[in-house]
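Trying the structure run again after the queue cleared.
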Amino acid sequence: MGRPPPPLRLLLALFSILLLPPLLLTGITAGAGTRRAPPTGSTCAASRQAACGASCIPVPWLCDGEQQCPDGTDEQCDVACGGDPHVWQCDDGRCVSSSWRCDGAADCLDGSDEQDCVCGPKKVQCPGTHHCIPHWELCDRHQDCEDGWDEEGCPQQPCLPGQWQCRNRVCIMAEWKCNGIDDCGDSSDEDVCAPCPPGMVRCDEGKCILESLMCNDEDDCLDGTDEPSTCGRSCFVRNGGCAETCTDTHWGVQCSCGAGWVLQADGQSCADVDECSLEYSPCSQLCSNTPGTFSCACLQGYTLWHGTTCEVADNATQILVAVGQDLALLDVRTQAYRPLLSSETEPRAVVYDLLRETYYWLTEEGELRTHLPGKGTRPLYADVEEVNSISVDWFTGQLYWASSHPAAICAGLGDGRGYVTVLGKDVAPEQLTVHPAARSLYWVNRGQRGRTVIAAAGMDGSNRRELTVVSMEEPVGLSLDHVAGRLYWISEYKESIETLRVDGSGRHSFPAVLRSHTEPLGLAVFESRFFWTDGTELVSATQASPQEHAVLLRAPVSAFTVLHELQQPPRDTAACAPGLCSHLCLLSPVHPRGYKCACPEGLFLLPSGKCAELSIMYASGKAISLVQVGPGARSKWVQEWQEPLHLQDVDWQRSVLYGTDDRGTLLRVVGHPGRREAIATGLPVCSARVDIHSGDLYWLACNRRDIGVIQASDMSPRILHRARSSIQHLFLDWQRGALYWLARGQPLQQLSLAGGAPWDAWNETWPGDLPVAMDSRAFSLLWSSALGLRALSLTKRQAVTLAPSWSHGLVAAFEPYLVSANGTALLLWDRRTLALVLSIPAAGVQGVVAFVGSELQAVPPSKGSDLPLPPPVTTTTRTTTSTTAARPTTSTTRSTPSKTTTAPSTTPAPTSKATTTPTTTAARPTTSTTRSTPSKTTTAPSTTPAPTSKATTTPTTTSQSTSTKTTPVPTTARTTPTKTTTVQPATTSTTTTWPLPTKTTAPRPTTTTQRPTSPARVVPPTPALPSSPAHPLTPVLHLSCPRTHVPCRDGTECVDQEYLCDGEKDCADGSDEDGCAQLCDTPGAFHCVSGAACVGAGERCDGVPQCPDASDETGCWSPTQECALRCDAATRCIPESWLCDGHADCLDHADEQGCVPKKCSPAEFPCRSGQCVALALRCDGDRDCRDGSDEEGCAVPRPLLCRTGEVACPRSGECVPEAWRCDGAADCGDGTDEQGCPWEEGLCGDRQWGCSHGHECIPDVWRCDGESDCTDGSDEAGCQPAPCQSHEYPCGLGACLNASLVCDGRQDCADGSDEAGKCSVPCQRSCAHLCYPSPQGPRCWCDLGYRLAKDGLSCMDIDECTERGKGACSQTCLNALGSYSCGCLPGYLLEPDGRVCKLAGPEPMLLVAVQSEVLSYGLRSGREEVLLTTDKDRVVFSLDYDLVERKVFWMDLATESIRWQDLDLGKKGTLVKGVRSDCIAVDWLGRNLYWTDGAAGQVLATRLGAAWRGIPEYTVVMDGDLDRPHSLVLQPLAGLLYWSEVGSHPRLMEATMDGSWRHVLLAQGLGWPTALALDLPMWRIFWLDEKLGIVGSAHLDGTSVKVLQLGWVRSPFAAAVCEGQLYWSERKSWSVQQVDKASGKNRTVLLKRHGQPHGLQVMHPALRPVAPNPCVTRGCSHLCLLSARHAGQCRCPAGLTLAADETTCLPLRDSAFALLVSPAAVAQVYLKDLPATAGSQGLPPHRALPLAKVGRLTAIDYAVKDKSLYFAEVGSDSIGLLRLKDWGRLSWKQAVAVEGTVTSLALDWLSGNLYWIGGQPPSIHVAAPGGRWALVLLSKGLQGAAWLALCPRASTMCFVTVDGSRRPSAAVECVAMDGTGRRTIWRRARAPTGLTFGGAGTRLYWADPERGTISSVELDGSHFRVVREGLHGLSLFAIGEGFLLWSTTSTNGSSKIWHSRLEHAKSWWFPMEQELVAMKIYSQFSQEGTNGCAKSNWGLCPALPAQPCRAAVPLLPWLPPGAWGGMHAGPALPGPTPGLP
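Done. Tokens:
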């Protein structure tokens, strides 16, 4: 296809005026009128930007390392993010807007802006606080954050400065008021300007004064216009002083000026009007002002018309239009219409790139398409959805688009190589247009609260600003006139065209341009002409006469754009020239370069402007591989060797790999494939890191203490630093020039690459050897531990948890990616979301390096690399050991080219403080000669020192030194993978070097005899203590010292490292104390308490003792909230909330010593007992202080009248509730309420035991439990003593004695039974543990924790966890041999007794509802306050809390509503109304609230975030057989709920939280269980029974039931469990009580108040454990309820039903239903109403449609969307159509005329075509909608044709025919819906009925009445299966929405309708009295999709065959009949002539 627009002409080269800067050009064309002031900091903050001089830049540009502000202010980062208060710093140092923090989208590359978010979804956090506000409270003109942050930078006025708001909220320019034009659209701008009445004149902007007040020498007008200078003058005298026209008045003269002039302020002079600077220039392009007039001119290529208008000289303007699915060119002058191509869909927008001849358009679904001549049409960026507008940057060829979801502006390469998001935050864009010459883009932005603006920004997202407010105007078709520098749009509300300059000035309106009630779709401006369309025609008008319209094209134009070569002038800038950026180049109005390079997601921008992929290089076995991760991942093998290589680092700058082998040899490989070279370090190396800047290599020796460096310049190694602790991980940050390392128990250390002293980079100690990686790009460390995946930001010096559970480990990190290895694969993760990005098969990974840089280049072996690599030299290495009384032992090795030689290795043993002198035990010389083959290693025998004491000791030596000669071969032009050469330090004087003396390590024990092929590590000895941080290598004598020792300088002995600088000379030469004084003189050095040793300031309090006496680690601790006190010899930390809580948590009781009453706040009253209670509780008649001091000194009015239910204390005068009388506690001040109390008569309960004296009853389990519970102690009388343990001896009186005291000569038993007898017989038994004498003879005894076995000799372990049960540990128990240990769940700490777990963190608070108040009671401090109050006549019934949103919820019975209050702000709200509940419960995980309705027998739920809007949004979770449900508790972690039923059969029930499964937990031994509580740590449920007076508990599986009958349990309402206590509210005694949850003992009354307590909860974070919410990803439209297996199930509120997708809730009328068709009626039954029981009486709830006008029906089909029923009847000559208008009004009409009886019909609900079987012989017909163009599709071979079925999505039609052979059988056949491709898919059916498509249209179902089966088969005839069988009397059948329906008829004629879920075998039925002729199932989902005729059925268009559920190509409607295979013309019907519409 040729290029449709005219070619560019050479005249464009003369188009020089467009080369002017855009703003200068705007000034020329429009004058120099009012311009917007440059943005300020607050302006930038309002648009979530940062100030940049006179412009704004995106916040992420701050401090990103690249200067993007011309003045460099964006990189002034001495403080975080330049100190901008509206900016938040990510943990990686990058910057984002503070409003983006915790908004649900990770804007930081490390995801840190979404970490530690305290607010829930759709809420924002006020900075610096924990206060959360809803999103909608931002910019609501109300200060919701304390500091007003939510209103900062918000527009304070609805309109911009200089605008005026009309009554209808339209914003107009202020100067438009009173201009005589209705600019508002409601005339409000002119209503304020009514003309003054006769005799009055106007002044002061609308003020009218009497004309007589003119020139009265008094200023009646504030502006002085009533006293002009022309007062009293006459035109006859010097023209009255007027410069031009003069008019006489009674007060003087009135001057006026002619056209082009304006009267000045003096009232007489005239000044020239600058027409060029008016709001709208009279010239369409260039304007020049002259005195009294102006002149216009045009740019090159234009011609001036009528003196003001410029039109193109060639008159070749064309419009690219989209009509239907065609793109065509329309010539504006000739109106010639030329089709170009088919877009295959109806475009919503279209643009054209003139230079590149590329079309872009937008489909109806918001997808991008592109067409390039010669390359065809293709989708562009298939992952981009819901695009609403597009625009092309013709300078670069990049496409810009705006999308609605997600709301963003993006730019993409036209070739599809990638796109970027230009603006993706705080934006809702549409109608996007770009202006490359101005480097800007413009769009309509629909913001919050209906605020709509025309917005602008740079094409790189910078300098975003609002140009004008257009709220209420409904702007349409934003368009750019780039020549005039103006934006235009249609105001649909005002029916006008509006415009303003691109800088926001020059607003102008063309009123009343559009015709009324039209809906414009787009606008374009060119040549001073407007073009727009309303969907039916394309119209143009001139700007001079906009009301005069010219119709250019009458067609349904959906999109258009003007084409002309002058519309896209050539590039006028060098910015974004080809080659500057490898991918996207974004023009920038701010950036100093004028552009900014950008990379698509997954690529990284390099400083060169190129985009690079992430490279991951890893070693696996003997191979090195490289994975490059970009838009697609590619893996390639790099190189392989014969020996394994541990990859250490990659110098991608110089194409060098560094690694180590199994012997610790440091290796490098230059290029690939490259030679493998050994680098001499003198020490085995276990870790190495390269400095990319210099090429220097830093390494960690395998002794884990020495850090060395090899300089690239000369390859010389030196020790940089020696650590005092074993280093576990070494990292290098080459970008910041620093080394970091981690050592167990020490803080993170940092050291400059230049050396010096290290310092702490983080103040927390490293816990252990955990997988850790450094991300130098994010400047962070990441590691995985038991606490999950954690990250340390080195920018902020703080650590956060990224994932609470992380089992994948960590091997590398490169923001935003993490790399882990699992043994079989490398896994790449997105750090922001922790989603798996890529899995790379890789086994046995040994080293991973992730980097972004240039690819490794292949380096020719003869040329070396960029890194200075001196050629290998022939060296001789001699190692000599000083020996005593021994001759040297030599080993000579003949080396071949691939040979590696090693020095001796040692395996040291521990030593005490000793001076070790090497000697040998071998006196004979030993000579070992080995001929080595390639890749083999010659190793000397190892030396094993023995333990020594402090003395001069000789270590045992099995061999002496070796002399090794290595002869590398010179480098040749070819290398092999197995070749290893040694790189030594460059030297010019000698070829002999000394090795680096170092200490030695060995990976495994070595022997004196080794196989030639076994690897051995080269381990030279350790040098003496360095005197400076970085020291070169110095030759010393070879000395092998143990691992923990260092050699003295003279090489004669070794000393332990811990004795260096300890003040004692341990070396004979004193070298172990050299240099120590220098350390003591350094600033901050710490002098050890004992000795003369010193440690550096950085080692003081680092967690690792360096002083011999450990004095450097004393006095280092400082208290924190988690560790406020250290006790028990500093072995135990006590949280702040445990201090002075009345319970000793330290063994030495230090936490309860020195306690003073806590200082109470001004709003609290200090009790003498130390409590603090709210002042509101002072003198309220209730003793809230434990000592009652809050009620002392209160005035008591007399006489005192007590309220109903209260009694007066006779002497003290108080009123106390009658329920407190004789309750065992004195409540009256005089104690009279407990005097004269009668003893309760009666027997003890079944589960109680009566004490001997008095009338006490105690629970029977307290009898003989070792504690006296009866006051007379009778419960412990007559009890059998507990059996003695295995280590004890039983005395005669039942006491137990330790076995060691038996037969010791002293009588320890009271009866003396432990002595005499056979005590003298010696122990000769072979006891497993101990043998002791006893009076009965020698016996075996077992240690504590063991039990003597039956053989009397051996001992068996006692499993305390099993035998003691829950008594062993309060939470978790772990048995061990002879003992056991207890553990605690997260949020708890173990007490000193090692058994009890106690809550850590904040103090647990007891929330109690008392009448109309909710009180908060501290369970440790006793602090009491009023949390909330309601009206006095309302009762707070049940309550619960939510710590996520910080709310408390309660049931208000008075208003029948569930209400809430914010715990922080005190705000209140209503969650739901119209409900009554006994108990509510918060699902803190799934974010729902549940409640019980005892009267209705239901459990219900609603969303926690719901807001009452007058419509119930709750769902019924369970209904039906619930017998008065009462109390309710939730277990969201398991998805379970528990409730009690207090009806006729009380029971405890368990169910999933979605109600899908339930069962009886407990049904025995219950009376009236009114209060439930869960003990999650113990996995138990507690209940209190009001009828039986018991406290019961059971395991959550219903086992291990324990019951305590307690006398004080009388009327419990609510209960809670915390730690070891059970709390409950007593309504009768008006109190809150507590008991020990296990024993029921230690009852305490916590609260007693004048009011009944009801709801009760304990509030603490650990009681609501956090876990992932499965509902987050479920996508439910309304409610999501948790279920078992940590899943979520969607549920719907009342009135809605769940659709088949099990996600969406629909109104009942839109849900799936069945049509049951009888001969004279149709019944609609919703599938949700089908009965779930068999034998239901009659039809279920249904809607009946009586068909009075219809005879006997034969067939039906239904269109869900149109609610249209198509039907055929016996004897009718047509198919009828009945429109069911909401089942109220009916509309009857004929759909299509037919001949003969129709036996089956089917509707193509996509195209509207109707298919039917009719006539004799039968044939298949089709007709277009409305009955047009009826044709016969098939007529042959259709004997007995019936049961027509369509699948429009698959363009397939199937039917049943009768086989004509002898055996009666039928065939199921299918064809395409155009009649072609007929095929038989099943022949073995008998009499199939109800043929129906199921699923996605790939499978057919039918019923076979003769066989009594329902069967199915694939459309290709495969996979036949019987779905149901044994269905006797089967007649009809239907399938849909996962349901099966079938009918059966019995022999007596009765019918049944059966229904079943397709996947379930169970079925139910209901009777059907009427005869049925058909049944079908429908839903709105069942009739969705598309085919080729769905949108283009202008004539008759049967869809061609296609793949299932894919669109097909339509047949052209104007083809003649017979052109389709198998088609025959049917009877001619009235209708339009076939052809184009």
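The longest strand covers residues 611-620. Worth checking whether this holds up in the mutant runs.
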